[in-house]
Design brief:
Elements (H helix, E strand, L loop, with lengths): L11 E2 L5 E2 L5 H7 L2 H7 L27 E3 L10 E5 L25 H5 L4 H17 L4 E3 L22 H16 L4 E7 L12 E3 L2 H8 L1 H10 L3 E4 L3 E2 L2 E2 L4 H11 L5 E3 L11 H7 L9 H12 L5 H15 L15 H15 L1 E5 L1 E2 L8 E2 L9 E5 L24 H7 L3 E2 L1 H20 L22 H10 L2 E7 L10 H5 L3 H16 L4 E6 L15 E4 L7 H10 L12 E2 L35 E3 L8 H6 L4 E3 L10 E10 L5 E9 L8 E7 L11 E7 L8 E8 L6 E3 L4 E4 L2 E10 L2 E10 L2 E4 L15
Parallel strand pairs: 4-5, 5-6, 6-8, 7-9, 7-21, 8-11, 15-16, 15-17, 17-18, 18-19
Antiparallel strand pairs: 1-2, 3-4, 9-10, 12-19, 13-14, 20-22, 23-24, 24-27, 25-26, 25-30, 28-29, 29-32, 30-31
Bound molecules: beta-D-glucopyranose.
The site of beta-D-glucopyranose has 8 residues, from loops.
Length: about 775
């Protein structure tokens, strides 16, 4: 056989008489396929480099070491295997390949939460282009991201991969990311569709949620991104929603995703084999095109069920067609000749995006020796030449989280190196103490490794903090001009966080903060805390003891340099929170129905004594639509830091709010933002809308649009214009299965956080309705919060 040919799109006949796939002969190829080959197209291969050992699949070597999986090749028909690698914070592959002296390190970009905190869609798109380019040049066809689940609760272990508690931020940032990645000729897999809001028992938990909360919150971000950016693939989640596994849920994967939103790509499962309690045919019938990582038994089931008349060949063909439409778009099909990504250019992209995602939570004025008046602690005055650097994570800095979402990075710039790079010294004894401890602790962790905890090999696990004694601090005060304490938090796939020691400070951390702050303050020297975490933590019990708090998230491989850029004022922080920071974890109403102190390996026998275990077998979303600020602002609860919050080194004024109707009842909002301070900076205008009292009870306000200024010089202003479509104001009316905008006067509130509104206006809006399918209703009463 085989075939000299260009991919011109013409039907190709070969010496062996067989037809080979082109972008225009999909029908013909499908006619030439056997049932077994069709079944094979729907079942992929995993990261163990093989696609199973069943009679139909055979072995296929992984094409890219460390990639998460492949789709199956059928050489007879000119169908190549394609490669799926993990994301979302960069390309997750092995840095080395057998028999190859080259390295394949990928750039570690900021985690999703940090990127979303930039509120800068252009910047996120730029990061997407860099990630897409590395996906392409490292021989992959699809990157498994972005992660677009909502931060339903701060304890979810994978929040770091996700963008926000708000679906608009999630959808808009997700859209920018997908556009950026796909502009490079590779695809994304928008995941995990849907309601993968906890890691505990994630492969079996039934997320029970109202149709309204589904439509308005958990599906909304996906809807925006699917409608606006045409993702190549979507990944169904592990969990059930309202009693049905999402991978077998036709109402979700076909009725909503394809019929209502117009999705054209493929749906793949999350990485699980054949499930005992879900027939393979249901997955195919639901419109889940690709089973990952794929088992021979699944392909065998497809064949057997078609032969037995249990599965209609039309259902199989629909999925196969979509698979072939996917394959012909891939670089592997186009026989792309790979080169090398420009890692240096991408390091600059990650440094800038991380800097812009960092959120300054606190910045007090103190009088420092050598200064005439009290000044804000940050940016550092030139008198800060030597700092005492406390906290294990100042040195063992987290660039990203744990699990499939980690990246094998070439290096991580820690806080110590970041400071050294801008000429700030650290006190030698303390630095040596931590460095020696970290060497020991890393080895100890290896020695004590629990093989069940696979995710500890994927990313940097957290090392225990060490005790900082009063005497140690006394020694440091004498030598340093300021103290920096890094508080690190690590989390990841397969585990949720605990309240004690994880959301809250540990005793050792409290002691460290108290000892350092009392002695440094007694000597008139400032204390700065850096939070190096993928998600939210408790701050109210200790924040008044320190002068400044900078949340740097897990900011990617250049993180330490980005931290130094902000501390020294080279960059003015313009990150804003995309989730509420509560006073206590239990303040979120969802905490009541969130697993605590369980882990994914603690699977117990279900239905003990005839009862299912709450938050393990099922999780009731009793809080309904009252997630994040929708709860805190409606019920007027105190928070540590509100949604949208973040300080700057300058100040801004918001003037001249104008609200005008454009097409029909769409609303154009414009506002002029002026830099009223002394240094240049960027500001985010956040547009919240309060609906009039109507038939459906609404949250006090909801974010409907946002925009960020360019870097404004002191005195400079920019007018930002944003569009709110009439449909964007709709609530989901369960009674009539429709989107409904109730007529009346809507209040438009423009602010710099959900609790800091600078200008309001109103707009009269008429009624709007849009019927949708009455699907995915919960099967049990949910005792919803009112
Ligand atoms: C994760 C996905 C990931 C996949 C492949 C799963 O366990 O939930 O996010 O893409 O593995 O590694």
């Amino acid at each position: 056989m085989i075939f000299a040919s260009t991919m011109t799109g013409q039907t190709r006949q070969y010496a062996d008489g067989g037809v080979k796939l082109t972008s225009e002969n999909i029908d013909e190829v499908m006619n030439a396929m056997t049932l077994e080959e069709k079944a094979q197209m729907l079942v992929g291969g995993g990261m163990d480099a093989f696609v199973g050992s069943g009679p139909m699949l055979g072995h296929q070597k992984a094409l890219v070491a460390g990639a998460a999986g492949i789709t199956v090749a059928i050489p007879r028909l000119g169908i190549p295997a394609t490669v799926l690698c993990d994301g979302p914070a960069g390309v997750h592959i092995d840095p080395r390949r057998e028999g190859d002296s080259k390295t394949y390190y990928a750039t570690g970009f900021p985690i999703g939460t940090c990127l979303a905190s930039t509120w800068n869609t252009e910047l996120v798109e730029q990061v997407g282009r860099a990630i897409g380019n590395e996906t392409h040049e490292y021989g992959c066809d699809v990157i498994l991201g972005p992660g677009m689940n909502l931060h339903r609760n701060p304890l979810c272990g994978r929040n770091f991969e996700y963008y926000s508690e708000d679906p608009i931020v999630t959808g808009v940032i997700g859209t920018a990311m997908v556009k950026g990645i796909q502009s490079q000729g590779v695809g994304v897999s928008v995941k995990h569709f849907a309601v993968n809001s906890q890691e505990t028992t994630r492969t079996k938990v039934d997320e029970r949620v109202s149709q309204r909360a589904l439509r308005e919150l958990y599906l909304k971000g996906f809807e925006i991104t699917v409608r606006q950016s045409d993702p190549w693939t979507v990944m169904s989640s592990y969990n059930k929603v309202n009693g049905v596994y999402t991978q077998g849920y036709k109402e979700l994967l076909t009725t909503i995703l394809r019929d209502e939103w117009g999705f054209k790509g493929i749906v793949m499962t999350d990485w699980i084999g054949k499930r005992a309690d879900l027939p393979v045919r249901q997955v195919v019938q639901a419109g889940n095109d690709l089973m990952m990582p794929g088992y021979a038994a699944q392909a065998e089931d497809v064949v057997a069920d078609v032969k037995a008349g249990l599965l209609d060949i039309k259902d199989v063909d629909r999925c196969v067609r979509r698979m072939l439409e996917y394959v012909v778009k891939t670089p592997r099909f186009k026989q792309y000749a790979y080169s090398k990504p420009d890692l240096e250019a991408h390091a600059a992209v990650t440094r800038q995006s991380a800097t812009e995602g960092m959120v300054l939570l606190r910045n007090e004025k103190i009088k420092v020796d050598g200064e005439d008046a009290a000044v804000s602690v940050l940016p550092f005055s030139k008198n800060i030449k030597t700092v005492a650097l406390f906290g294990v994570n100042s040195y063992d800095f987290f660039s990203g989280g744990l699990g499939s979402g980690c990246v094998n990075v070439p290096y991580v710039v820690n806080v110590l190196q970041g400071l050294e790079n801008v000429g700030i010294k650290t006190t030698p004894l303390l630095t040596e103490l931590y460095q020696n401890y970290i060497n020991y602790a890393r080895l100890k962790l290896k020695a004590d490794k629990n093989p069940m905890m696979w995710f500890l090999d994927a990313g940097q696990p957290k090392l225990d903090e060490i005790e900082i004694s009063e005497r140690c601090v006394a020694h440091e005060v004498a030598e340093a001009d300021a103290a920096i304490i890094t508080i690190g938090r690590q989390a990841g796939e397969g585990m949720d966080r605990k309240i004690d020691d994880e959301f809250n400070l540990s005793q050792m951390e409290q002691d460290m903060i108290f000892r350092v702050s009392s002695q440094f303050h007694a000597a008139g020297k400032p204390v700065i805390v850096i939070i190096n975490s993928g998600s939210v933590m408790e701050t109210c019990s200790w924040r008044d003891r320190v002068d400044a708090i900078l949340c740097v998230w897990q900011p990617g491989e250049e993180g330490g340099n980005s931290v130094a850029d902000v501390l020294t004022g080279k960059a003015n922080p313009s990150g804003r929170l995309t989730m509420t920071w509560p006073v206590a974890a239990a303040d979120h109403p969802s905490t009541r129905n969130f697993p605590q102190d369980m882990d994914m390996y603690s699977y117990r026998e279900t239905k003990l004594w005839g009862r299912e275990i709450p938050n393990e077998d099922y999780t009731n979303h009793e809080e309904d639509i009252y997630v994040g600020y929708r709860y805190f602002d409606t019920f007027k609860r105190e928070v540590a830091y509100p949604f949208g919050y973040g300080l700057s080194y300058t100040t801004f004024a918001f003037d001249n709010l104008k609200v005008k109707k454009t097409k029909g009842d769409d609303i154009e909002v414009s506002i002029t933002v002026r830099n009223t301070g002394d240094v240049s900076g960027k500001q985010v205008a956040q547009v919240y809308v309060s609906a009039p009292q109507g038939r459906i009870v609404k949250p006090a306000q909801e974010l409907k649009a946002f925009a960020k200024t360019r870097n404004l010089q002191p005195g400079e202003s920019e007018t930002l214009t944003m569009l709110i479509k009439q449909r964007d104001l709709a609530s989901f009316d369960e009674e009539h299965s429709q989107w409904l905008v109730e007529p009346g006067t809507y209040t438009i509130r423009v602010g710099s956080s959900s609790r800091d509104i600078h200008a309001t206006a109103s707009a009269k809006v008429g009624e709007y309705t849009e019927k949708v399918h009455n699907v995915m209703a919960p099967k049990q009463p949910l005792n919803l919060m009112k």
